[in-house]
Write a structure and sequence with these properties.
This protein is mainly β. It folds into two domains: about 90 residues, Thrombin, subunit H (Beta Barrel), CATH 2.40.10; about 90 residues, Beta Barrel (Thrombin, subunit H). Strand 13 and strand 14 form a beta hairpin. The chain is globular, with a radius of gyration of 15 Å. The N and C termini lie far apart (about 35 Å).
Length: about 200
Amino acid sequence: MVLSLLALALVATPAPGGSVLPPEPAALAVRGGGWIGSGVVWDAAARRVLTALHVVEEMPEGAIEVVTRGGVRLAARIVDREPLLDLALLEVAGPLEAGPPLGAADRLAPGDAIALAGCPRALCGRSDGHVIAVGRRFAGSRYLSVAAEARPGASGGAVLDSHGALVGIIDLTLLREPGVALAVPIERAAERFPRPSTSPPLAAR
C-alpha cells in the first residue's frame, strides 16, 4: 500500500510482555513477531478474521496469532489479501464468537455517532466519535472519515454505528488533521471478501 506523507498507517505497536485480554466484543488483538494490532471476526463458522494488511504483512510467517475475548491465543495465517484496500483475511486455528452484524457506511451522514473498537497497545476498548464524511477521497481511494481517537495498534479494528453494526475497518490517521481517522467502508470489504449467509445479517435501520 502506497501512503502519502500526509497520512500515517496505524501500524502494529510493540506487544507488551504479559498476556492480552480483550474485553471489547467487537475487536480482537492480532499479534506476531513482537507486534500487535487489531482485527474483527468476519466469519465465525469459517474461523475468519478481517484486519488491515499493513498490520500483518511484516509479521513472520507462522508467528501470527489472534487473541480472543477470553484471552485464548489462536494461531493464524493469511489466506487472502487485498492491497488496494489494505485488507487481509486471516484463518485462525480455533473457534470464534460471532462478530458484529454488518451495517452500511453509505447510509451514514456527517454528525452521526460512531465508535472505534480496537486494541491499541494491547488495551482493547472503544472510543466514541462521529462521522465527518462518507466517501472521502484520499490517495486514490474512498474512505469513511471519522472524528475519534485512533491510536497506533488500532488498525484493523472496527468502526461501529450507533446500533453496534460494523460500518468500516480502521486504517489511517491524517498527520495534518489530528483526531481524524480514515476507515475502509464495510461495503468495499464485503464486496471483496463476501460473508456467507450464516453470518449476522445487515443491521436493520
